[in-house]
Design goal:
The structure holds two protein chains of two kinds.
Chain A: H1 31-45, H2 51-67, H3 77-91, H4 97-109
Helix pairs in contact in A: 1-3, 2-3
Chain B: H1 6-9, H2 14-28, H3 34-47, H4 50-62, H5 64-72, H6 74-80, E1 91-95, E2 100-105, H7 114-117, H8 127-135, H9 137-143, E3 153-158, E4 164-168, H10 180-184, H11 189-193
Parallel strand pairs in B: 1-4, 2-3
The chains are: A mainly alpha, B mainly alpha.
Chain lengths: 127, 207
């Protein structure tokens, strides 16, 4: 791969000094990354799968994504994590694939916050 | 049409939607509990990080008996300090010496010792690091600002799902009078991955 040529300055924007907010490592860039992370850890802790089983699934997801053109620079890591979570949950019969798809449709139809909650620009209680 | 939060709704993209769907399904089935999920996130965001590993290193620098246990049974020695759990079950500590420099990668994905280092930095998870550290470790080290003398041997260790490596960096010169707490401040995350070295006395390490 050309981007791994020894003289390519391969780390480029990836090097630690140019990673704002990452002085010590554990950073979730968006809430969904943390949620997906916690789901896999919680299921593992509850004994639904071993860690080697998890690693086999996520590393297969990473290889699949790379084969489909993902440069795999770390920024897409939690996308792979989520895809692996969906796969292992179905593989371990913790949830049905159809139920998962239906739940996505339901969630899409009921986005968070979409509950006809009017903005109130005055105190709703003064006392 | 009342004034709603609708403008926020449209920003939820596909991945967030998918996480919300699988989370709500697993909660409904009783397979995960919301409080447990929140506790996991909070722990990994605030409590677990390289400051844990730095305590292990500083103890090894100041306590020869602990260091011997750390090098012979790392999992047990690290657990003495209270750091254990997922991705910390089978730890191996490799010691840097004047003649050997160790560095760690997970060539397959991102296996990493969470209890001692927290979650891995972005570059550790990236394909270029995973591939290049095996092909040209000295070049990678140079990119991280570490230039080793040619006579120093470099060993690259591959963490996987069964075992994870932690580097015991060399204790910096001029730190003879420092206690473990002061020494821990010199131990950076990268020093324990092997892409860095411990900071010099008087300099700060990782938080």
């Amino acid at each position: 791969m050309s981007h791994m040529a020894p003289d390519a300055g391969w780390l480029g924007g990836l090097a630690p000094p140019s990673m704002p907010g990452d002085p010590s490592g554990p950073v979730f860039r968006e809430p969904w990354e943390a949620q997906a992370f916690a789901l896999a850890v919680a299921l593992h802790r509850a004994g639904h799968f071993t860690w080697p089983e998890w690693v086999a699934v996520i590393s297969a997801e990473i290889r699949r994504a790379q084969a489909e053109g993902d440069p795999d620079l770390g920024s897409t890591y939690y996308r792979h994590w989520l895809a692996a979570l969906e796969k292992i949950v179905v593989a371990k019969s913790l949830a049905d694939d159809v139920d998962l798809r239906l739940r996505r449709l339901e969630c899409a139809a009921h986005p968070p916050g979409k509950h006809n909650h009017p903005a109130r620009r005055e105190p709703i209680r003064v006392g | 049409m009342p004034d709603t939060h609708e403008d926020l709704d449209t920003r939820e993209d596909d991945v967030a939607l998918r996480v919300r769907a699988i989370e709500s399904l697993l909660i409904e089935k009783g397979l995960v509990q919301p409080a447990a999920l929140a506790a996991i996130v909070e722990t990994y965001e605030t409590k677990i990080g390289p400051h844990n590993g730095a305590q292990v290193v500083a103890r090894a620098w100041t306590d020869p008996a602990f260091k011997a246990r750390l090098l012979s049974n790392a999992t047990g020695a690290i657990a003495e300090l209270g750091f254990s759990g997922v991705q910390g079950e089978d730890m191996v500590v490799v010691e840097n010496t004047p003649t050997v420099h160790n560095m760690v990668v997970c060539t397959l994905c991102s296996c990493y010792p969470w209890p001692t280092l927290g979650l891995p930095p972005n570059w550790y998870k990236s394909a270029p690091y995973r591939a290049r550290v095996v092909i040209d470790p000295r070049g990678v080290l140079s990119e991280f600002g570490v230039d080793l003398p040619p006579e120093k041997e470099v060993r690259v260790w591959d963490s996987n799902a069964e075992l994870r490596y932690l580097v015991l960096p060399e204790r910096p010169a001029g730190t003879e009078g420092m206690d473990a707490a002061a020494l821990a401040a010199l131990v950076t995350r990268d020093a324990m991955i092997g892409t860095g070295v411990a900071a010099a006395a008087g300099a700060g390490g990782a938080p």
